[in-house]
Amino acid sequence: MAANVLPSPATSGSVTGHRFSQGHTRRSVVSLGCETLPVSQISASLRFRWLTAPSMVDEIMQAQLLTCWRDVSNAGGAVGFTFLPVTTEQVRAAIDALIGSLDPSLSRILVATVDQTLAGWLVLVGNADTLTAHWARVLRVQTALGYRGAGVGRALMREVERAARDDLRLNHLHLELRGGMGLERFYESCGRCEIGSWPEALCLDGNELRDEVLMHLPLR
């Protein structure tokens, strides 16, 4: 799932303290509808953009975020919805709340696009309290179904690490995973390390209990 990460546009705004300023098997081709593109071509075409205010999310991007979140969830992705299948209206409410929460200091969305089409995204959430403002949480990491196997997830991990370290001057990134899905291996391959878990912290459909796995990435 390796990918070359291209330089992204500079993050706008200034940094105040430590608040925000604003295994897959690798495939050689990925099918996008009726078009099949080499993985190397997709990797080279990836562009990144940080969305840090509601006004930065137009209707096209909002619709793409909704479709991706719905489809990834219904394909079994652990990206915030417990009871599946999830409906468009349920995801719309979550998307509206997420976009409404965007804030240059505390909440931002990283989108990866190929020719203005959403390939994947994640959320970076900071802390308002100065006691914990030196670290942030990575949430909702997902790759659009048509781009799976093209290295988008790994590219997102590298870009959020770069931005958190170089632009936002953070010291740590935290990430929580749903246990029992084998996600740890991917995040460990991206430099994260497992530091523990909350036993049976998650109650899924059918009252199935899962651990919440805690991952950590030092940036300094």
Question: What is the CATH top level name of the domain at 47-170?
Answer: Alpha Beta
Continuous helix count: 5
Strands of the biggest beta sheet: in what spatial order? Answer: 3-4-5-6-7-9-8
Would you identify the CATH H-level superfamily of the domain at 47-170?
Answer: Gcn5-related N-acetyltransferase (GNAT)
End-to-end Cα distance, whole Å, is 26 Å
- Element pattern in H and E: EEHEHHEEEHEHEE
The number of E-state strands comes to 9
Given helix and strand content, the structural type is: alpha+beta
- Provide the gyration radius in Å: 17 Å
Please give the largest β-sheet.
7 strands, mixed
- Could you estimate the helical fraction of the residues in percent? 25-40%
pLDDT below 50 for ≥5 consecutive residues: which ranges?
A: 1-18, 21-27, 31-35
Give the second-level CATH assignment, the architecture of the domain at 47-170.
3-Layer(aba) Sandwich
Mean pLDDT across all amino acids: 86
Kindly identify the CATH topology of the domain at 47-170.
Aminopeptidase
Strand percentage, roughly?
25-35%
Shape: globular
